[in-house]
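[step 3/7] fold_predict: job queued, chain A
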Amino acid sequence: MRKYEGMYIIRPSLSEEQIKAIIEEINAIFTTRGSEKVDVNEWGMRELAYEIDNETKGYYVVFNVEATPEAVAEYNRICNIREDILRHIIIKE
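[step 4/7] structure written:
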């Protein structure tokens, strides 16, 4: 397993409960696929550098994880499918 740092931006029009549910779902992607130590840092609502899908703000979430390649691939797949995630990234540390 390798160490990764990732970030995703959630659409700001969602309720607080919906945002918490999305964060739990993303964490579950890693924990159910043999990864370890998901550290989540919620930055909260911030201005975007540029407009994305007519949105000027987004809810930022940064995380660190020791993940398997399967978990990273599933994270990318899920984030590409979901309409409520504006942008995502994951990089090796």
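[step 5/7] annotate
DSSP finds two helices and four strands in the chain.
The chain has a mean pLDDT of 94.
exit 0
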